[in-house]
Design brief:
By secondary structure, the protein is of the alpha/beta class. The longest helix has 32 residues, at 432-463. A hairpin with a 4-residue loop joins strand 9 (271-274) and strand 10 (279-282). The protein has three domains: 11-244 and 378-412, 3-Layer(aba) Sandwich (Rossmann fold); 249-368, SecA, preprotein cross-linking domain (Pre-protein croslinking domain of SecA, Alpha-Beta Complex); 430-464. It has helices at residues 2-10, 13-36, 40-55, 60-79, 85-95, 108-120, 133-149, 185-189, 198-208, 230-236, 254-262, 284-294, 307-319, 354-362, 378-382, 399-406, 432-463, and strands spanning 99-101, 126-130, 154-158, 161-165, 179-181, 193-197, 224-228, 241-247, 271-274, 279-282, 327-330, 333-337, 344-345, 370-377, 387-392, 410-412.
């Protein structure tokens, strides 16, 4: 109610932002013919000109219209794609350190080239953060020719590897076409623009802070980043901890002992499950059963204190973590499945003995426990950037959280053409069974409609 009243009095805040930018769009469009007349070397020379002007004290915002015009012309020549006016608006929103909400299919990948190039002119390095390795690699391969036309270097960080874009390089693996591998990740981070996943950027930050010598660090200062699927990374995964671990003592037989014990306990009778917080709590009957199996009088007595962590993790492994959903077993190893992307995460392990509890549950070799050496959440990591921006198709619903946690405003970018797709709201069901029942019911209704239409069609033809 209050928000609606304020909007009526002061106007739509999104429209106020966009109205300021529309005059800049006019300037960019006025430069289009002049930049189209430039030769390739002259277009590339614009990058050196912009850098000289910046070093002379000219503000970055004053260079924006010309820089955006240069990127637009480079995109036309390199990938035959011309930025629409609304995409220029999106680029300005990202440059201002805000979140651009753009509908699916409006070209966020192309939009990002505008602020990435502009901010890369400072020489401090800029990052494009994606949810998975494929999007990072694909983004560099697709937009790499645009940056190359402007004389700007671009690298990409992948899991256990790094590449720089090189149009003259033919990689032996066709999936990495034009991506030249580098011996050290520092070279990819040393590029003007670096693409990578939130996981890789975060882990590289942790490793840099564990080095004994600055020469071993790979990242530069965290200057500017654009986060793709920003609601997923900065809200849904915000508190997900990145952990670098070291090996502790050999795993004990208590994991196997409590895995066998947990398998005998029954839901509701012996324990209760908190799905929201992913926790399992023993009931009074469950405590009595555990004490009887262990041959002790009081499970929570000080002399038995070391047993409770093994019991807690065994219960989580058996009740909360499901095979082929949260993890898979492959070649005698438990491999984590990323809950957000569905991708396998070899080499990553659950902490605090949970991974060992799952290994005991699955009957594979139990690896040594680990000690946490360094850790950080995505929320704390991304708040360290001097300037942060994001783009997604769905951000307005989390606007208050973005503002409160990251001081990020959300601006809705209009579509290039009127929307013809109907974006229906999400339907949430209380149970998985109810969801699948609804799917079957809808399928039956559609089949019945299609069948009725098919029966009417011959009669219509006969009348003609």
């Amino acid at each position: 109610m209050l928000k609606g009243i304020l909007t009526k009095v002061s106007g739509d805040p999104t429209e106020r932002v966009l109205s300021r930018f529309r005059s800049v769009v006019v300037k960019i469009n006025q430069l289009e013919d002049a930049y189209h007349a430039l030769g390739d070397s002259q277009l590339r020379g614009k990058t050196d000109e912009f850098k000289r002007r910046l070093s002379g004290g000219e503000p970055l915002d004053d260079i924006l219209p010309e820089a955006f015009a240069a990127v637009r012309e480079a995109a036309v020549r390199a990938v035959n794609m011309r930025h629409f006016d609304v995409q220029l608006l999106g680029g300005m929103v990202l440059h201002q350190g805000k979140i651009a909400e753009m509908k699916t299919g409006e070209g966020k990948t192309l939009v990002a080239t505008l602020p990435l190039y502009l901010n890369a002119l400072t020489g401090k390095g800029v990052h494009l953060v994606t949810p998975n390795d494929y999007l990072s690699k694909f983004g560099v391969q697709w937009m790499g020719p645009v940056y190359h036309r402007l004389g700007v270097s671009v690298g990409v960080i992948q899991h256990e590897s790094a590449f720089v874009f090189d149009p003259d390089y033919a990689h032996q693996d066709a999936r990495y076409h034009h991506l030249r591998p580098v011996a050290h990740r520092r070279e990819a981070y040393g590029a003007d623009i670096t693409y990578g996943t939130n996981n890789e950027f975060g882990f590289d930050y942790l490793r840099d802070n564990m080095t004994w010598d600055d020469s071993e660090r790979v990242q530069r200062d965290l200057h500017y980043a654009i986060v793709d699927e920003v609601d997923n990374i900065l809200i849904d995964e915000a508190r997900t901890p990145l952990i670098i671990s070291g090996l502790a003592d050999e795993a004990t037989d208590l994991y196997k002992k409590f895995a066998a014990l947990a398998s005998t306990l029954r839901a509701e009778q012996d324990y209760e499950v908190d799905e929201k917080h992913r926790n399992v709590t023993l009931t009074e009957a469950g405590i009595e059963k555990v004490e009887k199996r262990l041959g002790i009088d009081n499970l929570y007595a000080p002399e038995h204190l070391e047993m409770t962590p093994y019991l807690d993790q065994a219960l989580k492994a058996h009740v909360i973590f499901k095979r082929d959903r949260d993890y898979i077993v492959k070649e005698g190893q438990v491999i984590i499945v990323d809950e957000f992307t569905g991708r396998l995460m070899p080499g990553r392990r659950f902490s605090e003995g949970l991974h060992q509890a799952i290994e005991a549950k699955e009957g594979v070799q139990i690896q040594r426990e680990s000690l946490t050496l360094a850790t950080i959440t995505f929320q704390n990591y991304f708040r360290m950037y001097q300037k942060l921006a994001g783009m997604t198709g769905t951000a307005k619903t989390e606007e208050e959280e973005f503002q409160k946690i990251y001081n990020l405003d959300v601006v809705m970018i209009p579509t290039h053409r009127p929307m013809v797709r109907a974006d229906a709201p999400d339907q949430v069901y209380k149970t998985e069974q109810a969801k699948y029942r609804a799917v079957v019911n809808r399928r039956e209704v559609r089949n019945a409609v299609r069948h009725a239409a098919a029966q009417r069609r011959p009669a219509q033809c006969a009348e003609r």
